[in-house]
Design a protein that fits this description.
Layout: H1 15-26, H2 30-33, H3 35-42, H4 46-70, H5 77-84, H6 87-116, H7 121-138, H8 140-168, H9 183-193, H10 201-205, H11 213-250, H12 254-261, H13 268-299, H14 318-332, H15 339-360, H16 367-380, H17 385-404
Helix pairs in contact: 1-8, 1-11, 1-13, 3-9, 3-11, 4-9, 4-11, 4-15, 4-16, 5-6, 5-15, 6-7, 6-13, 6-14, 6-15, 6-17, 7-13, 7-14, 8-11, 8-13, 9-16, 11-12, 12-13, 13-14, 15-16, 15-17
Length: 421
């Protein structure tokens, strides 16, 4: 590795690559793991929670796309918050993203382990993290190519689940209509479901590596989010109609149990392969996104400057990737897969709240970021109490770290000062 920061990251990704990386994060393990805890919170009103999470995701996606087109550099809302709101809010966004998505990475790695070799799930999870970290260090284009194949496999498996359940099972569409609705339960379920919708953040954090970002980023965010919304809706309808909310809430592998209940137990291994592949794709895209935000924060000296080095041979932030991979591997060795979902959602919702606030300062199309900001804050603070407490504590630690280093003010990422701020 070079000892100096080196060149900017090369722009190698087109629209298809960016959409694929976004889908690899969203239509990955998320749909395989979040339906059960969301059903436990919302009951038969699961589809209402899904629609609410999707609406907030749309606002977040549009705000992120507008900002990424204007600031096409690695870092996502860390860059946007710094440019539009000031270094403190940029730092808070970056810190929230890194800790939240580190937890997401651990959840995805553990999902791989639980499906591939349940008796040694943690060892498999750690091995998966190390292997994908090495792949990411070899170049983002190779990562995008692998993710494309994984997304194709996952989409094929999800299609098979829907066809088996709705086409040949005894799904009862009456189960989609709740007898009563708990507003708090729906909001909590929506916050948990958001865990599976946050993949388009990866597109924004990779914007320094995207060709023609002013056009590519908005298109990629729009397409990846629209595809994910359709897929999630169809799959949720199929699984809820087949199992019912009570059975779904108790399911450890909802999609596998749905195909078994539909009379196709022979499809369980296929669903297992799809879940493991989806988790790998999500983990790969997440590792790329977290390492790019780490790179951006290191460039501004919010993190050790040594992490800002870009390897000249592969055009990747190898030091940041290695540090992130090591942290994820450590967390995967001790964490519980369901316990980290709420914590991850809290961090990512706060990250998007800052992104929406940043988009609001652009001065145009203010309704979307205003709705997105309010939605993020409501969903974040209606998550399970433990998730809110731990998440808020970690965010406060990050804020304190910023103020403790305020005597060594970092340079800004560059660009014009915020309008009207």
């Amino acid at each position: 590795m070079s000892s100096d920061p080196g060149p900017a990251l090369p722009r190698r990704l087109g629209t298809v690559d960016a959409v694929t990386l976004g889908l690899g994060s969203m239509v990955g393990a998320g749909i395989f793991v979040v339906l059960a805890p969301a059903a436990a919170a919302a009951g038969p009103a699961l589809l209402i929670a899904l629609a609410l999470a999707g609406a907030v995701a749309v606002c977040n996606g549009l705000s992120s796309a507008w900002l990424a087109a204007r600031y096409p550099r690695s870092g996502g809302a860390y860059v946007y918050g710094t440019e539009r709101l000031g270094p403190f809010w940029g730092h808070t966004a970056g810190w929230s993203f890194i800790v939240g998505k580190t937890a997401s990475c651990a959840a995805m790695a553990l999902t791989v382990g639980l499906y591939v070799w349940p008796q040694h799930s943690r060892a498999v999870a750690v091995a998966a993290v190390l292997a994908l970290t090495a792949l990411g260090c070899a170049g983002v284009q190779r990562s995008a190519t692998l993710t494309r194949w994984i997304v194709a496999l996952v989409l094929a498996v999800l299609t098979g689940v829907v066809v088996a359940v709705l086409g040949f099972g005894d799904a009862d569409l009456a189960r989609l209509t709740p007898d009563s609705v708990s507003a708090y339960g729906v909001l909590q379920a929506a916050g948990l479901m958001f865990f599976a919708f946050a993949g388009y953040a990866r597109i924004a954090t990779l914007s320094e590596e995207v060709r023609d970002p002013a056009r590519t980023i908005p298109r990629a965010v729009t397409w990846s989010l629209a595809i994910a919304l359709v897929i999630y809706g169809v799959v949720a309808v199929a699984v809820l109609a087949q199992l019912g909310s009570e059975t779904l809430a108790a399911a450890s592998a909802p999609l596998a149990e749905a195909v078994s209940a539909a009379g196709f137990p022979q499809l369980r291994p296929v669903v297992t392969v799809g879940a493991a592949a989806g988790a790998l794709g999500a983990l790969l895209a997440l590792l790329l996104g977290v390492s790019r935000t780490t790179l951006a924060m290191a460039r501004d000296r919010h993190l050790p400057p040594a992490l800002a080095v870009v390897d000249r041979r592969h055009g990747t932030p190898q030091r940041a990737q290695i540090v992130v991979g090591a942290a994820v591997a450590l967390l995967a060795a001790v964490a519980d897969v369901r316990a980290v979902i709420g914590f991850s959602s809290f961090g990512v919702l706060l990250y998007y709240a800052i992104a929406n606030a940043s988009a609001w300062t652009l001065g145009t199309r203010r309704l979307v970021p205003a709705v997105g900001l309010a939605g993020c804050l409501v969903l974040a603070f209606t998550l399970p109490g433990t998730s809110v407490l731990i998440g808020a504590s970690v965010v406060v630690v990050g804020m304190a770290a910023y103020w403790a280093g305020s005597s060594r003010r970092p340079r800004l990422t560059g660009g014009s000062p915020p309008d009207g701020v």
